[in-house]
Design a protein that fits this description.
15 helices; globular; two-stranded antiparallel sheet; 13 strands; alpha/beta
């Protein structure tokens, strides 16, 4: 075992900051640990590792110990929010200079739910500007480092949220996933990350990037914590017109009850296993994970998702088109940054956006505006939406024959800072295995399944609409057989 790893067979042997949230809950309930001791420990942990990782943009103003509901699982447990999720009375920037002075006037629904649960919100995590990126190098404020090796990126755009959990500065964090921005950093940081079904978790209070793709979801240490996290944030919200009224599963009960893996039919799509894009060592880790399920008796079924090859062009037409519309509201008039030297309204708009937006945001606004422009709408955006429908149909047909689908989360292990930042097309390809999930609106979860060159590898588990519980239970069965989720970076 590398000296970069800390590995524990028993949860009781783990240092306090690396224990899963369900063990912390047990310790508090049994009076083995007080809320004050826990918060002081996390404060000390942050002081020790945050300077080298830079996961946070700011820390929460709230410091009081809230015992409003001692029976709530998350009461007094430290959690983190991505800084594109509104927190009333606090700066919320979306990682952009254009919102550097913006104070949120209301709580996002997920923020409200966590506050009502008594969770201790540690702070706001760094991200790629407006959630546009795969490495957290596009933040206007700082670059977040991977806790397994600080020369490497943590993934993006929710890199700060992933690092907060992976490094022991929080027990759960929330990110947003538009094309893989929860699952990819979860893979790069060796933790669990779930993108729920579109509509399962309210988007009210999430600063929009691409509204038909964005979804809030959690990062956790293991699948059991994921069940508790999803119970805390899921459900219908009248403030979100896209929020689903479908009943919320009892995720925790289903994880505790488990599943007979021998009754699972697992799909393995040929389009995700081959070609020049995937690292052979990453592929081997994922194949070993599939073999673990096979040894437990699961039936492995080869399937095809033929329209996957269109995922990247379709995503970057749809997402950038929606971004060009959503980001038009940032004009220097109503809120956020305003340029100082301007002569008329037009130059105010131009200078504010030129000075306030970073290069990746500008690139995507230009691409989206072009795709929606007269003469190009039918050729690009309209055809992309048609292809999106075909990709959705691929998944609908696949889930008629299988319970879950297994794929790699990312085609590679984490890459070094600067390695892809000047090559946007190569950077975009790092999301090739996650993008189609957002386009089809289905749920997907990344869990750790191995290491290559001392860096984590993620396994992606996909499920049918609103079947997050099936994904989480399947992940938990895998984690009963493996110890990747009990292995931590030695900081």
């Amino acid at each position: 075992m590398s000296d970069k790893f800390l590995k524990f067979d028993n949860v009781k042997d783990m240092p306090l900051h690396y224990k899963p949230a369900h063990e912390i809950r047990r310790m508090i309930d049994n009076k083995e640990l007080s809320a004050a001791e826990l918060k002081q420990h996390i404060k000390d942990r942050i002081s020790a590792v945050e300077p080298k990782l830079k996961a946070f943009l700011r820390f929460s103003k709230e410091a009081a110990i809230d015992n409003s509901d001692k029976n709530n699982f998350w009461n007094n447990i430290p959690v983190t929010l991505k800084d594109n999720i509104m927190t009333a009375g606090e700066i919320t920037t979306a990682g952009s200079k254009i919102l550097s002075n913006y104070t949120a006037v209301y709580d996002a629904t997920v923020t409200k739910k966590l506050r009502e649960s008594g969770a201790f919100i540690v702070g706001k995590a760094n991200l790629d500007e407006f959630a546009m990126g795969s490495s957290t190098e596009n933040s206007a404020f700082e670059k977040t480092a991977n806790p397994w090796d600080v020369q490497y990126v943590p993934g993006g755009s929710s890199g700060g949220s992933a690092v907060a959990v992976a490094s022991g500065m929080s027990y759960m964090s929330l990110g947003s996933d538009t094309g893989g921005s929860i699952r990819q950093p979860a893979s790069f940081c060796g933790i669990c990350g779930l993108k729920p079904t579109y509509g399962r978790v309210s988007r009210y209070g999430l600063i929009a990037y691409a509204s038909s793709l964005d979804q809030i979801g959690p990062f956790t240490r293991d699948a059991v914590d994921m069940a508790y996290a999803m119970e805390a944030i899921s459900g219908h919200d009248n403030n979100d017109s896209t929020s689903s009224a479908m009943p919320v599963d009892n995720y925790v009960e289903k994880v505790k009850n488990g599943i007979d893996v021998s009754k699972l039919k697992i799909g393995v799509p040929e389009e995700f296993f081959g070609g020049d894009g995937i690292d052979p060592e990453v592929l081997k880790c994922v194949e070993n994970a599939i073999e673990t399920y096979k040894k437990l008796g699961a039936k492995i079924v080869k399937i095809s998702l033929p329209h996957t090859k269109y995922a990247i062009p379709v995503y970057y037409l749809v997402a950038t088109a929606e971004a060009s519309s959503n980001l038009a509201r940032f004009d220097g008039i109503r809120y956020g940054y305003r340029a100082k030297d301007y002569t008329n309204l037009k130059t105010l708009y131009q200078k504010t956006r030129d000075e306030g937006f970073g290069p990746e945001v500008k690139r995507r606004i230009i691409l989206g505006t072009y795709g929606l422009s007269s003469g190009y709408y039918d050729a690009y955006y309209k055809n992309a939406q048609k292809a999106r429908t075909k990709m959705t149909e691929d998944f609908v047909n696949a889930f008629k024959n299988v319970d879950i689908i297994l794929t790699p989360t990312s085609p590679t292990i984490p890459f070094k800072f600067g390695e892809k930042i000047d090559d946007p097309v190569t950077m975009y390809k790092s999301d090739i295995f996650t993008i189609s999930v957002n386009l089809a609106s289905i749920p997907g979860m990344s869990i750790p399944c191995g290491f290559v060159k001392n860096l984590p590898v993620g396994l992606q588990i996909l499920g049918n609409y609103f079947e997050e519980s099936k994904i989480i239970v399947a992940a938990n069965e895998f984690q009963k057989q493996t110890d990747y989720h009990k292995t931590f970076p030695n900081l």
